[in-house]
Design brief:
With 236 residues, the protein is mostly beta strands. It has a domain of 128 residues: Sandwich (Jelly Rolls). Helix content is 0%, strand content 53%. The chain has no helices and 22 strands. The strands form 4 sheets. Strands 1-20-17-22-15-13-14 form a 7-stranded mixed beta sheet, with no helix packed on it. The chain has a 7-stranded antiparallel beta sheet with strand order 2-3-4-11-6-9-12, with no helix packed on it. A hairpin with a 3-residue loop joins strand 18 and strand 19.
C-alpha cells in the first residue's frame, strides 16, 4: 500500500529567522494520526536565516540525522564536538542518555536548508555520540546511495536503528527498482522534481510516500529529481 502525503498538507511554522515544515507531529503541531511511521518520528524541513539558529537544547533517547541541502550548518554539543556541514554532508547524533547541542547558520548572507530526522533507537540508554560524514556527490546519479546505516563505512554514518537512508539524483526518464524483505516499510521523500511509484502514484516536490506491504518498488523520474528513500523495520 502506498499512502501519499502532499507538501501542502504539512504543518508550517515561521518566524523572523526560521521556516519549518513538519511531516509528523512536532512542537505545537499535534495530530494523533500522524505521530510516526515505524521508527521514523520526525522529519522537519527547515530554512534558517544567516547568523541564526537553535541555541543549546537537550535531547534524549533519539537517533538524530541532519542532511544539509543548501548553505552551512554549524554543530556544537556537550561532548565538545564541533563541525560545519554543507551539501554532501550527513550528521548523526545519538542522544542516548542525554546530550545538549546547538545548530547554527554561520553564514553572513546565505540561508541554510536542512532536513532533520529523528528515529527511535533499537535500544535505550545508549552512550551519547556524534559523527559527520561526507559522501561522494557523483555517486548519487541514477543510483540509490546509502548515507546512513547500521553498518557504517567511510562515507556512511552509523545509526543504532535497523534502517538505511538512501539519497538519489535520478535523471528524467530513468528508473530504479528497490527490493526489501517482507514486512518492512519504505518511506520516500521527494526533495526536488517529480517521481512515479509503481506506475500508480506520483510524488511532487516535498511530497512523501509511506509504503507498506510492498516488497518491490519501481521509482520512475518524470523530471530530473532528487529524493530520499528510507528502508525501515516493520512494526508500529
Amino acid at each position: 500500500m502506498i499512502q501519499i502525503n502532499r507538501a501542502a498538507s504539512r504543518y508550517s511554522a515561521k518566524n523572523d529567522w526560521l521556516e519549518s515544515n513538519f511531516s509528523f507531529s512536532f512542537g505545537e503541531y499535534y495530530d494523533e494520526s500522524n505521530i510516526r511511521f515505524g521508527a521514523l518520528r520526525v522529519l522537519n524541513d527547515d530554512t534558517i536565516q544567516p547568523g541564526k539558529g537553535f541555541g543549546l537544547h537537550p535531547h534524549r533517547e533519539m537517533e538524530i540525522v541532519s542532511i544539509v541541502l543548501k548553505g552551512t550548518l554549524k554543530h556544537e554539543d556537550s561532548l565538545k564536538n564541533s563541525g560545519n556541514l554543507q551539501y554532501g554532508s550527513i550528521q548523526r547524533m545519538s542522544a542516548g542518555t542525554g546530550i545538549l547541542h546547538s545548530e547554527f547558520n554561520p553564514s553572513d548572507n546565505e540561508e541554510a536548508s536542512i532536513l532533520q530526522l529523528w528515529f527511535f533507537p533499537d535500544e535505550s540508554k545508549l552512550t551519547p555520540s556524534y559523527e559527520d560524514v561526507t559522501f561522494d556527490l557523483d555517486k548519487l546519479k541514477n543510483n540509490l546511495l546509502p548515507v546512513v546505516s547500521p553498518s557504517p563505512s567511510e562515507q556512511v554514518a552509523k545509526i543504532h536503528t535497523d534502517l538505511t537512508i538512501y539519497l538519489s539524483k535520478l535523471d528524467k526518464g530513468k528508473e530504479l527498482v528497490f527490493r526489501q524483505e517482507k514486512g518492512r516499510k519504505i518511506y520516500v521523500f521527494t526533495i526536488e522534481g517529480e517521481l512515479g511509484l509503481n506506475q500508480e502514484s506520483t510524488l511532487g516536490r516535498r511530497d512523501d510516500a509511506r509504503i507498506t506491504d510492498t516488497e518491490e518498488l519501481t521509482i520512475t523520474s518524470n523530471q530530473d529529481s532528487f529524493f530520499m528513500l528510507i528502508d525501515l523495520p516493520g512494526g508500529e
